[in-house]
């Protein structure tokens, strides 16, 4: 079986570079059991890194992940579990309470610490209230689609292979078993030219970059507008 490359996350742990993301959109149409099934499919496929947060469904997703880990009968020590301390627990005296709550949900006695992880590697699950994206996002990008065709892969596989080859840990989310599986099948190489094309998709200076979060719609002004951001 293909072994997902890892990198050292801290003195104790190595993080598998590809993990499963488990954010389920704004949760209004969440079908109970989806994250549990997704995690089971992922663990069976070989994923050993799961990313979650208390904020996803007020702990529902953490609980489903805990159930899936227990049902998988895979040793806890083999799985890298990341959860996120919710905003309301950032005061130092509240950190333990927040973490204990997540661990209870997960039915685990530890999670794996502070990580830099590339969230939303496939362009993100857009929450309609805050997001607005011009164009179809990375999965619909013509350059990525052309590279995918050459390799007989999906655009998602091209993106994930490119990111992980640079040592970047990524956590694509899917609830669809076939996508969960294919997102893990990234054991192929891109040519130097293809890698250059991927690296320069947004322009050499990021001039064609895409922002998913629509600040103007959400909070009434663009926090990235440098003219607004001047001292009065
Ligand atoms: N800590 C934080 O602040 C934070 C913030 C954002 C994200 N995250 C983490 O990062 C994870 C990933 O971000 P995300 O969920 O926003 O976005 P994402 O993983 O970039 O994209 C998920 C979207 O892509 C679709 N998708 C997945 N695989 C696909 C494929 N092979 N082909 C086509 N579409 C595919 C999914 O739909 P289906 O499910 O229908 O396949 C879903 O709509 C989150 O789940 C979460 O764990 C953390």
TrEMBL record:
* PROSITE patterns registered for this protein in UniProt: ALDOKETO_REDUCTASE_3
Extract the signal peptide range: none
Q: Which catalytic residues are annotated? A: 56
Q: Which residues form the NADP-dependent oxidoreductase domain?
A: 18-112
Coiled-coil region: none
UniProt-recorded Gene Ontology molecular function terms: oxidoreductase activity
Alphabetized, the UniProt keywords read: Oxidoreductase
Protein's name in the database:
Aldo/keto reductase
